[in-house]
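ZP: hey, is the magnesium ion complex queued? I don't see it on the tracker
AM: it wasn't, my bad. submitting now with these inputs:
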Amino acid sequence: MQYSEIMVRYGELSTKGKNRKSFIDRLGSNVRKVLHDLPEVKVHANRDRLHVSLNGADSDDVVARLKLVFGIQNFSPSVQVERTFEATAETAKQMVKEQLAGSKTFKINTRRSDHNFEMDTNEMNTRLGGVILDTFPELTVDVHHPDLIIRVEIRANGIFLSSETIDGAGGLPVGTGGKGMLMLSGGIDSPVAGYLGMKRGVSMEMVHFFSPPYTSEQALAKAEELTGKLARYSGTIKFLQVPFTEIQETVKEKVPEGYLMTVQRRMMLRLTAALALKRHGLAIFNGESLGQVASQTMESMLAINDVTTLPILRPVVSLDKTEIIKIAEDIDTYDLSILPFEDCCTIFAPPSPKTKPNLERTRLYESRLDVEGLMQKALDGVKITDVHAGQEFLNEEADAFAELL
Ligand code: ATP
Ligand code: MG
């Protein structure tokens, strides 16, 4: 079927009262962004629906892209016909024919936003239903649980027919929730945390700590490529790489082994908070899940959290690893995350970190460091790049290398 438009139904934003307009505007611009390379496509965001006019563009391609946009409840590819009963009936017959396989019952569902049209909704339902019954004797009408629904929308500029309702990504349009800083490692959990934050409308910047020469170019490329995966849900993402070698070396030299990780994490968090302040971030997101590893006990969170008053949001805090993996697979980050390029934490991880660090001791050990000086040097070395949707950074050599390991 050659569709003429995709009719998009808003998600949760319809309940947001006063903010409604800004939600709709943002969704409209997010949809335009994901379709920007299709100049023939036009997007109109109205009060209760968003219409994507295809003007000849491939509907499968557009559907695949819309599925990733947060703030969409569902959508229907539709065909526009002229405002006559005959044209409507012709297209309805064609639609039923294409969707017929396995269906026994159907229903016509008409909405009329243009009250000047000669037929009302009941009349359209009855007459069109009659035509379908005559054409397809194997079908009967079932208004409660039909196998097939033909939706008819009578609008001023034409009549629109659709038969499919495709689930959208749900959530809220990215950008309506303000900016968050995601602490992105190369692991499984933090990309999932980033995805979940974006789903609630937050536009994310990635903060990644790397420690050359202890960590490889590939570890960095992996984090950038993960960012490219997440950018499919939000459009271009800022990637902030923070040099962490000197801090890790100094911490290792001056802090007792059991507290290495706690102090390292405090430094990471301080740096992320400093970047948030500079760049108007309202919260920090990370991929911590309670009880998963030593640094993710509540005692540990208390000792690490101590360095900032910014909210630290942990979208995967109460998910099991298997649940996190399931999401990672769905958003296509899992295969990248399990590539064996060690990040800075793995390499400097002590064999037996304290699972219940004491806050006072943590502060005491940390006072042996020139915290301000170390932070300033790391901040001076921050490099910021734009990562686009689907952008790749790992080369084939890296893939071959990973296979050898
Ligand atoms: P992940 O799978 O996200 O790496 P993890 O289970 O391996 O998580 P940790 O290594 O303890 O857990 O890290 C906890 C969180 O700290 C990560 O989810 C991430 O948000 C942050 N983090 C760890 N390493 C880095 C890094 N190199 N750069 C930025 N953030 C990091
Ligand atoms: Mg990790």
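AM: back. The chain is about 40% helix and 20% strand.
ZP: great, adding it to the tracker
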